[in-house]
Amino acid sequence: MSDVTAAAPLRQDLSEVSDWVTLLKPRVISLVVLTGVVGLLVAPGHLHPTLAIAAVLCIALGAGAAGAINMWYDRDIDAVMRRTERRPIPAGRIEPGAALAYGVGLALASVAIMGLATNWVAAGVLALSIGFYVFVYTMWLKRRTSQNIVIGGAAGAFPPVIGWAAVTGDVTLMPVLMFAIIFFWTPPHFWALSLWAHADYEKVGVPMLPVTHGARETRKQVLVYTIALVPLTLLPWVFGFAGWVYAAAALLLGAEFLRQSVAVYRDLQDAAGRSLSNDVPAKKAFRYSLLYLALLFIALAADKAVLG
Ligand code: HEM
Ligand SMILES: CC(C)=CCC/C(C)=C/CC/C(C)=C/COP(=O)(O)OP(=O)(O)O
């Protein structure tokens, strides 16, 4: 057998593995894991490093499992939307039933291992967030209301609470503040994206805000939530959970997020109605939203490392 023929099965195996990884929405998980790790780092107390690693893996697996079940449920609309048509299920590379079994199996395993490795409060919040993403967001609200991502978005706000609870076994004010920060960050994050991705959602009848209320209202809501978010991010400092390192970072990062959201609001390209697919301010704001949340949470951890 020539080298080229011998390499073909290996290439196929690797691409199959990569499809199973894609089902977990790995790029989204990276930020979920970052916020979960920061929850774990800023919590008072100590968790054995092996158990801390297990807890982080469980957050990643649980979030990934929920993503896989989301892709199983949404396979009909994913097949029609350009952004998602090449995903493993609509592209026919993974059987829907197999993806569902994989997602449910990983979800159960992640919750069980979290409970055994740390405590059942952390495991319970992990189960709640998986349930929120799968049942509340994906199955109930996503196709029914333009407020889908506001209410359902709570799912993505739980990871720092899970990280905190893995160390302390409780949920107090600081993890609630971290939850609130991600909760208010989600609408500008998603609605900025939806301004240029609205055609896909329109095509499949998913009632995202630009589809139901138009681009102008969406731009306003991006700004309104960013205005609410920035003072909220200062509360960990106000309540004494974080010091000046975090407060300075929150102010600087927030000022830039506000600047970007004002640019999204002021953009008049769609004065007549719809946004355009090359909506530059909205694309910039979406990309910045990812950097913003990452740096804000890194600042929280750095603040604790520097100031104790
Ligand atoms: C209901 C809440 C949310 C919705 C509807 C949403 C929706 C989306 C969508 C549609 C994308 C584009 C994905 C793609 O390229 O195909 C995206 C990207 C992303 N989201 Fe969200 N998101 C939500 C919450 C979150 C949360 C809570 C996090 C993490 C804390 C997060 C992290 C990310 C990341 C890291 C990306 C970039 C992925 C990439 O590079 O492809 N999202 N989001
Ligand atoms: C621990 C745990 C369970 C965390 C939850 C993780 C998380 C980030 C939830 C929010 C979700 C998200 C990426 C929604 C996009 O779904 P969509 O179906 O609207 O996007 P799509 O069209 O790209 O599939």
TrEMBL record:
| Reactions listed under catalytic activity | heme b + (2E,6E)-farnesyl diphosphate + H2O = Fe(II)-heme o + diphosphate
Species whose genome carries this gene: Paeniroseomonas aquatica
Highest taxon, organism lineage: Bacteria
What membrane topology does the UniProt entry give?
Multi-pass membrane protein
- Statement: the UniProt record of this protein carries the keyword Membrane: yes
- Pathway the protein takes part in: Porphyrin-containing compound metabolism; heme O biosynthesis; heme O from protoheme: step 1/1
Q: Which GO terms describe its molecular function?
A: protoheme IX farnesyltransferase activity
Sorted alphabetically, the keyword list is:
Cell membrane, Heme biosynthesis, Membrane, Transferase, Transmembrane, Transmembrane helix
Q: Which family does this protein fall into?
A: Belongs to the UbiA prenyltransferase family. Protoheme IX farnesyltransferase subfamily.
Q: Which gene encodes it?
A: ctaB
Q: What does this protein do?
A: Converts heme B (protoheme IX) to heme O by substitution of the vinyl group on carbon 2 of heme B porphyrin ring with a hydroxyethyl farnesyl side group.
Please report the name of this protein according to its UniProt entry.
Answer: Protoheme IX farnesyltransferase
**What EC number(s) would the UniProt record show?**
2.5.1.141
Q: Additional info?
A: Carbon 2 of the heme B porphyrin ring is defined according to the Fischer nomenclature.
Q: Where in the cell is it found?
A: Cell membrane
Q: Is the keyword Mitochondrion in the record?
A: no
Question: Per the UniProt record, which residue ranges are transmembrane?
Answer: 28-45, 51-73, 94-114, 120-141, 148-167, 173-193, 222-239, 285-302
Task: Give the Pfam families listed for this entry.
Answer: UbiA (PF01040)
Going by the record, the broad EC class of this enzyme is transferase
